[in-house]
Amino acid sequence: MAPRPLPGTPTAVKMVLAALVTVACVAIVYVVIWFYMAASYRDAIGGWAEARRGEGLEVRYARLEMSGFPFMLRVTLEKPGLGAPKAGAPWHWDGARAIGEARPWNPRRVRVMLAGAHRIAWTRHGAPVRYRGSAEELTAEIVTDAGGRRQVWLDISGLVLKGESGELEIAVAEAHAEAWRTTSTSADHLTATAQVSLEASRLWLPRGLALPFGNRVGTIALKASLMGAIAPGRLPDSLAAWRDSGGTLEVHQLAVTYGPLSGRLTGTLALDAALQPIGALTAKLGGFFEAVDGLRKAGLVGARQALMAKVVLGVLAKRPPGGGAATLNAPLTIQDRRLYVGPVDLAEVPAIRWRDGGG
Fold first, then answer.
1. Which parts of the chain fold into alpha helices (H)?
2. Count of CB atoms within 10 A of residue 324's CB?
3. How many C-beta atoms lie closer than 10 Å to residue 116's C-beta?
4. Phi then psi for 319, rounded to 5 degrees?
5. Rounded-to-integer distance, Cα 239 and Cα 237, Å
6. pTM
7. Cβ distance 84 to 91 under 8 Å?
8. DSSP 60-114
9. pLDDT at residue 359, as a whole number
10. Which has the least CB within 10 A, 5, 146, 190, 251?
């Protein structure tokens, strides 16, 4: 039997050298791939910005930097901005910094971080409205699979934006949202093409919305699915085609605590011939009587309607066996831009004016 070569013999040295050469080749290939992907990301961002500018949008940033080698692809945009100065209602956003991250071996999963200072302006009733503030956390994670399905996760905390007067206007203590959508344009009305879920707490909304119980919302929880595909094109035309094919929005849960009202809704929404919302939902409401009084004081419900609502719906309301506030279980209907709670015609639903670029 031939003796085994001892360590340090030419055969062992060759094996070690071969391993080192292999590792070196793999490392060189990885470095080349990393820098190629970094250059591709840079070019993709520049191409996207130019395409948006060609559509009339304003895209800007002071500096673009690639970093994160070797285990991360990180894009940092200093002083990013986005706006539509030529739109019918011009708007723009400016941030302090935008950071995007992806793993080289998983480039379809991108994390975008926008914490820090923000300035937002838009046009309302022909006049500019401006806010400035900051967010402790504003992070989105986006995943696109090979089939075109896109998933998004969004986390917000400590967001505070103030109007020009310096008063607190918009704030979000905590919010988490998840959504996905497909690119299918042939799905029928029995197939979900998008879904969204949202949980948010301690919200302050703009006073300009003139909400009936003030601008503070305690909590919101939403889960809904879009059934059927909305094809690209002019939004009114696309929505009409979606409606005609039986498209609906399935509300699996909408739970809100706002002012005296706490409610939980489930049901189905759709669009009528005028592209206005119609729907049939089931509602469980607490604080309903106080809410009706608030609507009457805000001038959104007439005195006669408020009295009828409290009398008729009071029959349906139930109090817990041990006492406490009454809760109302009743059907909620939206039709012909009217809101009905049970048999009571409660209020008018504001009209939605769809534009080509959104609602």
1. 10-54, 235-244, 288-297, 303-316
2. 9
3. 14
4. -100, 145
5. 5
6. 0.82
7. yes
8. E-SEEEEE-TTT-EEEEEES-EEEETTSSS-EEEEESEEEEEEETTEEEEEEEE-
9. 37
10. 146
Map residue 147 onto helix, strand or coil: coil
CB atoms closer than 10 angstroms to residue 123: 14
List, in order, residues 6 or more apart from 342 with CB less than 8 Å away: 312, 313, 316, 330, 331
Q: Which residues pair with 168 in a beta bridge?
A: 162
As a whole number of angstroms, the distance between CA 135 and CA 243 comes to: 38
CA–CA dist 202, 126 (Å, integer): 30
Assign 207 to helix, strand or coil. Answer: helix
Query: How far apart, in whole angstroms, are the C-alpha atoms of residue 301 and residue 292?
Result: 8
Instruction: Indicate the SS3 state at residue 15.
Output: helix
d(CA 203, CA 23): 54
Q: Rounded to whole angstroms, how far apart are CA atoms 215 and 171?
A: 10
Mean pLDDT of 35-41: 91
Instruction: Summarize pLDDT for 292-335 with one digit per residue, the tens.
Output: 888 888 777 788 878 877 777 777 777 767 666 678 888 899 99
- Among residues 156, 130, 154, the alpha carbon closest in space to that of 142 is found at 154
* DSSP 3-state of 313: helix
Helices (H) and strands (E) in the chain, counts: 4, 21
Copy the structure tokens of residue 1: 């039997």
DSSP state of 358: B
d(CA 121, CA 93): 7
CB 98 within 8 A of CB 76: yes
DSSP 8-state code for residue 2: P
Six-digit token string for 285: 């409401």
- Give the chain's radius of gyration (CA, Å): 28
What are the angstrom distances between the C-alpha of 44 and each of 33, 41, 150, 293? 16, 5, 18, 55
Are the beta carbons of 122 and 90 closer than 8 angstroms? yes
The tokens describing 323, both together, are: 């006492």
Q: With 0-12 CB in 10 A as exposed, 13-18 as middle and 19+ as buried, what is 205?
A: middle
pLDDT bin (cut points 50, 70, 90) of residue 269 is: very high
Torsion angles phi and psi, residue 165, rounded to 5: -75, -10
Could you tell me how many residues make up the chain?
Answer: 359
pLDDT at 9 over 60: yes
